[in-house]
């Protein structure tokens, strides 16, 4: 807990004087004494005083007042993947049911990350991946940022599975604040995680620091959208450095937010078109585990609904285009509405029906 507090006290120093995100793994690999000695003059004296006078009891009480659980790296239940990297977190603050963290030891965990300035296509794919993976029993982890991260969490909640949000702020601080509602939903049924102390506001280096935790927790990291220098590509590099699988969703070659994943694919990342590709990467192509997971997640469809879905997939985009006669239109509309509620089709603003990712 003292290490976590130290990172909070030195947050601005790490950002402005130690190199921030450019030197992050090296910075976070330093022990407490080395971090303190990087300071000069009065600042070092002040931090040394705070460090030597740290009261673990008061720190635990503060966490309790913020409705946070604490989990130090020497305690049972601390995720084993986070113990391996030399720059791994010393402790975790948790909001939600701390028992959910055990799922990361028994079930596959997939990180879904991407651009904050996502395209409608990227948002739809991220939401679909979150929903499908969650329904298949996969734990979906992301950073609750705008765009792809939040879409993946939203989808996972729709899939009634477990989703974990790793924050670059204190676990008691919804960030971004406009995602307060999503934060509450994840805390209610999933888990919020941070290595930073309660009340901590984020600096720029806190986000790649968060990303290294996402990459370490996940057995596979999937990048949906992002530029070549985006945080999602940093997460992918962390995952690759740890020997984890990296996947990417292909995008338009003319789109700037597709340059990151398209570049990863060119470098040999796993092609991700749906949750089935992710399951094949985790369990092996055609494995019984992957087939069972997909079968468990796929909703039961009647012959009529399957025929409707096939029509939409074939390009028919309106009840009139699908119906055999005008008399069949109301029945077709009812079927399309049912497919929409299942998340298999969506209705565009112009009224057309489109197959969801």
Which architecture of the largest domain per CATH? 3-Layer(aba) Sandwich
| Unreliable spans | none
Major β-sheet, in short?
9 strands, mixed
**How would you describe the shape?**
elongated
CATH topology of the largest domain: Rossmann fold
Category by helix and strand content: alpha/beta
Mean pLDDT: 93
In percent terms, what proportion of residues is strand? Answer: 5-15%
Strand order of the largest sheet: 1-2-6-5-4-3-7-8-9
* Helix run count: 18
SSE order, one letter for each helix or strand: HHHHHHEEHEHEHEHEHEHEHEHHHHHEE
Radius of gyration: 22 Å
Provide structural commentary.
The protein is of the alpha/beta class and 357 residues long. It folds into two domains: 287 residues, Rossmann fold (3-Layer(aba) Sandwich), CATH 3.40.50; 53 residues, no CATH class. The protein has 18 helices and eleven strands. The chain has a nine-stranded mixed beta sheet with strand order 1-2-6-5-4-3-7-8-9, sandwiched between helices. It has a two-stranded antiparallel ribbon with strand order 10-11. Helix 9 packs across helix 10. The chain is elongated.
In a few lines, what is going on in this structure?
It is elongated and about 85 Å long. It is α/β, with parallel strands linked by helices.
């Amino acid at each position: 807990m003292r290490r976590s507090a130290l990172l909070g006290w030195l947050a601005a120093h790490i950002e402005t004087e130690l190199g921030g995100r450019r030197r992050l793994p090296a910075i976070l690999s330093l022990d407490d004494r080395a971090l303190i000695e990087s300071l000069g003059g009065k600042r070092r004296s002040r931090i040394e005083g705070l460090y030597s006078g740290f009261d673990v009891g008061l720190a635990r009480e503060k966490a309790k007042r913020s409705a946070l659980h604490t989990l130090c790296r020497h305690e049972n239940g601390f995720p084993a993947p986070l113990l391996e990297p030399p720059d791994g977190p010393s402790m975790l603050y948790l909001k939600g049911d701390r028992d959910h963290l055990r799922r990361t030891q028994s079930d596959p965990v997939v990180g879904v990350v991407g651009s904050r300035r996502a395209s409608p296509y990227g948002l739809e794919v991220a939401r679909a991946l979150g929903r499908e993976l969650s329904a298949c029993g996969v734990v979906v982890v992301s950073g609750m940022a705008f765009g792809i991260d939040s879409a993946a969490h939203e989808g996972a909640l729709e899939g009634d599975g477990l989703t974990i949000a790793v924050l670059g702020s204190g676990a008691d601080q919804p960030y971004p604040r406009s995602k307060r509602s999503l934060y509450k939903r994840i805390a209610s049924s999933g888990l919020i995680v941070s290595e930073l102390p309660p009340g901590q506001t984020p600096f720029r280096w806190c986000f790649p620091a968060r990303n290294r935790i996402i990459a370490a927790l996940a057995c596979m990291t999937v990048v949906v959208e992002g530029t070549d220098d985006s945080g999602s590509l940093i997460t992918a590099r962390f995952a690759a450095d740890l020997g984890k699988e990296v996947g990417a969703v292909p995008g338009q070659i003319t789109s700037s937010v597709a340059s990151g994943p398209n570049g990863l694919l060119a470098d040999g990342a796993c092609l991700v078109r749906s949750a089935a590709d992710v399951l094949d990467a985790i369990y092996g192509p055609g494995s019984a585990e992957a087939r069972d997971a997909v079968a468990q997640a796929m909703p039961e469809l009647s012959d009529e609904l399957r025929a409707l879905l096939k029509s939409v997939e074939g390009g028919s985009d309106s009840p009139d285009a699908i119906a055999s006669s005008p008399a069949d239109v109301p029945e077709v509309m009812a079927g399309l509405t049912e497919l929409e509620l299942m998340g298999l089709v969506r209705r565009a603003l112009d009224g057309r029906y489109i197959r969801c990712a």
